[in-house]
Automatic annotation (TrEMBL):
Basic and acidic residues composition bias: residue spans: 1-17
Source species: Agromyces hippuratus
SUPFAM superfamilies noted in UniProt: SIS domain
Protein name stated in the entry: Fructoselysine-6-P-deglycase FrlB-like protein
One MF annotation (Gene Ontology) recorded for this entry: carbohydrate derivative binding
Record's keyword terms, sorted: Repeat
Classification via InterPro entries: GlmS/AgaS_SIS (IPR035466), GlmS/FrlB_SIS (IPR035490), SIS_dom (IPR001347), SIS_dom_sf (IPR046348)
Upper classification of the organism: Bacteria, Bacillati, Actinomycetota, Actinomycetes, Micrococcales
Domain SIS: 34-173
Amino acid sequence: MTEHSTTEHTPAEHMSAELDSQPETWAKAESLRAEQALLPARGARIAVVGCGTSWFIAQSYAWLREAGGHGETDAFAASEAFVDRGYDAVVALTRSGTTTEVLQLVEGLRGRVRTIGVIGDASSPLVGLVDDAVLLPFADEQSVVQTRFATTALALFRASLGEDLSGAIADAERAVAEELAPELTDAEQYTFLGRGWSVGLAHEAALKMREASQSWTESYPSMEYRHGPIAIAAPGRVTWQFGETPEGLAGDVAATGAHFEAGTLDPMAELVRAQRVALARARAKGLDPDAPRNLTRSVILDA
C-alpha cells in the first residue's frame, strides 16, 4: 500500500497540494523515456481501459494516438470493454492498481494479449499481473479525488507520441497561480465542452466538480451541445469550452444569459483550472474532497 503521513491535515490539504504540483509532475513524466518506451509502438492496434477518471484520460489518449497516425486506438470503461478484437496490446490505466474491474480484465487477458499497466501505486497487485508496468509513484495521491495522477499519465502519453509539453507546463503554472473569477466559483450549474482529445478532459472536469463539491455539472462534445443540452444554459450558469471554440457557439451561449468561458490554455491546463474551481466550491460548502461523500480511493467489489 502507499505510505501515508500521520501528520494532521486540514480538509482538502492533500488535494490542494497535489493539484498545485502538476507542472512539476508533468515535467517529470515528459522526461521518463524508458517508461514511455514500454507503451505500444507506432502501428500497434490497441485498447486503453480504465474506470472513472482513468476512462476519461483513456479517451483523450486514444484520440491523440489515432489522430496522430500511431495506430488504431479504442478506449473503454474496464467494466464494458470489448478487448477480444485482435488487439496487439491493452493498456490499463489505474492510480491504485486495485480496482476490481481492471484486475479482472487483465487477469482474463494473461497469456493471450500483451498488457501494459500505467499505475500510481508501485506495490499494487496489478504490477504482478501485467506484462509491463509503467510506474508513476511520484504522481500518486492521498486525496480520494484525483487530480495530478490522471493528468501526469496523460502527460506521459502525450510525450510518448512525440509532443513537446513545454507550452502545456507553462499554462499549468499560470492555471495554479491565477485568481479565480466569481462567475466561475459562484455559478449555479456548469457544462464542460471539448473537441477531439479534449472531450475526455471535459468529462473529467465535470466529474471533479461532482466528486469534490457536489456541484451540478454536465459534459458533452462541443458540437453536440446545441442538439439539446443548451436548453440548460441560463443566467448564473457556466458553459466552459476546453480547446478551440466552434464557430458561433459563444454567441449562442451568450444569448441564453449564461457565462461562456472560452478556455485559452492547453486543455490539460484548463482542467487544472476546473479542479481549482471544484476545490474552491468544496471549501465554500464546508466539504472535504480528500474524503468525499460515498467515495473511496479505489472501488473494490465483493467476490
